[in-house]
């Protein structure tokens, strides 16, 4: 069977003007992942990244660390926007009128998210529940089903091109991993997002495939961070 390794990007710049930038901690997490993969002697046949900076930089940092330990040629990073994260900011903005009805201070909390992490998560969870339900579609906004379909098409392209024992790395984001898990194990969307909230930055989840059949064999492994014995390396955003 072949293997697909779903790798969440390192910590981004939560609360900053541009979230789509790896933080210094995100680079450390990515380097730790590269060290760990090198120790396991895992050789990727293909490496695919979404088009977002945090995804590509995680891929580059991880692969460079592997290269530091091993002079074997590594596959190039292929960029496929199908594995981009869903448009979280657009989803929040589209549901802002309803959000303000349940939390009048929503704008303040969202504008100062780094200082109000718990409140931000509460509001974000409310918005996500509305979005994935499919009952509150917004014109011009990518729906949950459209997002899953985009991810499914990217996955199908990989499977169509894969040899039966390929090891494929996908550097992506939590929401995309959630969509891939829904496709693999067919859990309801809201249950999939309950798993999403637990996905650690640079964690590894693994799918096995035979032709188009998929099986989840591991989820959210972050041993490479736990081995560092530094709790600050384990982050979720």
Describe the protein in words.
It is a single chain. The chain has helices at residues 24-40, 53-69, 88-94, 96-102, 106-111, 117-133, 144-161, 174-185, 189-196, 223-226; strands spanning 2-8, 46-49, 77-79, 167-172, 204-210, 213-221. The protein has 237 residues and is α/β, with parallel strands linked by helices. Helix 1 crosses helix 2 (53-69) and helix 8 crosses helix 9 (189-196). The longest helix has 18 residues, at 144-161. The chain is globular.
Radius of gyration: 18 Å
Q: What structural class should be given to the helix and strand makeup?
A: alpha/beta
Could you give the order of strands across the largest sheet? Answer: 3-2-4-1-5-6
Q: How are helices and strands ordered from N to C? A: EHEHEHHHHHEHHEEH
Model regions low in confidence, pLDDT < 50 over at least 5 residues: none
Largest sheet: 6 strands, mixed
Percent range of helical residues: 40-55%
SS elements, strand count: 6
Mean pLDDT: 92
Distance between the termini: 32 Å
- The DSSP helix count reads 10
Strand content: 15-25%
Shape: globular
Helix and strand arrangement:
Layout: E1 2-8, H1 24-40, E2 46-49, H2 53-69, E3 77-79, H3 88-94, H4 96-102, H5 106-111, H6 117-133, H7 144-161, E4 167-172, H8 174-185, H9 189-196, E5 204-210, E6 213-221, H10 223-226
Parallel strand pairs: 1-4, 2-3, 2-4
Antiparallel strand pairs: 1-5, 5-6
Helix pairs in contact: 1-2, 7-8, 8-9
Offer a concise description of the structure:
It contains ten helices and six strands, in the order βαβαβαααααβααββα. It has 237 residues and is α/β, with parallel strands linked by helices.
């Amino acid at each position: 069977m072949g293997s697909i390794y779903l790798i969440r990007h390192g910590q981004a710049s939560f609360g900053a003007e541009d979230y789509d930038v790896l933080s210094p901690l995100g680079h450390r997490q990515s380097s730790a992942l590269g060290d760990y993969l090198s120790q396991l002697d895992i050789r990727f046949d293909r490496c695919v990244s979404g088009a977002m900076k945090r995804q590509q930089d995680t891929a580059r940092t991880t692969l460079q660390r592997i290269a530091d330990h091993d002079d074997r040629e590594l596959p190039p990073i292929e960029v496929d926007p199908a594995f981009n994260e869903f448009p979280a900011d657009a989803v929040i903005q589209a549901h802002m009128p309803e959000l303000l009805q349940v939390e009048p201070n929503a704008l303040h909390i969202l504008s100062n998210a780094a200082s109000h992490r718990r409140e931000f998560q509460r509001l974000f969870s409310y918005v996500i529940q509305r979005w994935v339900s499919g009952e509150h579609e917004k014109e011009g906004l990518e729906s949950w089903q459209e997002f899953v379909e985009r991810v499914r098409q990217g996955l199908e392209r990989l499977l169509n091109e894969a040899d039966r024992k390929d090891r494929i790395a996908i550097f992506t984001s939590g929401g995309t991993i959630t969509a891939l898990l829904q496709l693999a194990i067919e859990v309801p969307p809201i249950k999939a997002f309950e798993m999403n909230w637990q996905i650690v930055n640079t964690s590894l989840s693994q799918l096995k495939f035979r032709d188009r059949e998929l099986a989840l064999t591991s989820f959210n492994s972050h041993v490479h961070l736990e081995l560092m014995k530094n709790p600050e390396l384990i982050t979720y955003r």
